[in-house]
Design brief:
Layout (H helix, E strand, L loop, with lengths): L1 H22 L11 E11 L2 E17 L2 E12 L1 H4 L4 E9 L5 E10 L2 E10 L5 E8 L5 E8 L6 H8 L12 E3 L2 E2 L4 E2 L1 E13 L4 E14 L2 E11 L6 E8 L2 E11 L8 E2 L1
Antiparallel strand pairs: 1-2, 1-16, 2-3, 3-4, 4-5, 5-6, 6-7, 7-8, 9-12, 10-11, 12-13, 13-14, 13-17, 14-15, 15-16
Amino acid sequence: MKRVALLLMICSLYIATATAQSKCGIENTAFKSGERLTYNLYFNWKFVWFKVGFATMNTDLTTFEGKHAWRSSLVTGGNKRLDKFFVMRDTLLSYCNTDLSPLYFRKGSHEGKRYYVDEIWYSYPRGYCRLKKHAITSSGEHLWSENTYKQCIYDMMSIFLRARNFDATEMKEGDIIHLPISDASNLNNAWLQFRGHETFKVEDTNEKFRCLVFSFFEREDGKNHELIRFFVTDDKNHIPVRLDMNLSFGSAKAYLKSYKGIRGEMTSKLQ
């Protein structure tokens, strides 16, 4: 009987964990393993836009701690022209379950004179979302913390993968999707706002796309801050073709340069 009770307890914990992961996940219909996206970065200086760097995003189906998982990485880098104003070298890494519920996140950033690292490990005990956090500050100090939440929590990368799988067919302009996001130090009240449809021409490639437009907001110091406005293809791929970013040192834009390994046909592309 003790063995039966123990087995039932183990099964119930497994079911609770699986349920928690499931509620934090979403069906992936947007991308497949081997997707490669590259972007040109532009920075605004005294009303003039300069090409200052690049960004690459790669997504692959791999393993994490012995289980199938999505691995997505984003690397950004500025050139010497940007370095005159502000050094920017960021590397973001994310592992998610096959249903896109987050498992691990890391961000290494060289911004200005600062270099710091954020790490988050996710687990889902008894229907909760637990975050183990590790921060390496710009002074080299290691800070550890752990928090457990009733609701699902995401990070910069896992929320991006999740947002690409939203179904916008029933969305109306102004609709809001609340998405709590954490780094290694803070939990931020964040949300996406749907801004409608727009046709956008990528000047670097002369390609034109029908796009869905979203804004990403965070609330800080009692004020709402639009951090990123992004344009994604109005098809099942939902590939970002343009990102407008409000940074601490100015404004930046990213334009899609090339793409390969995409999952579906680019029906949003206009001839």
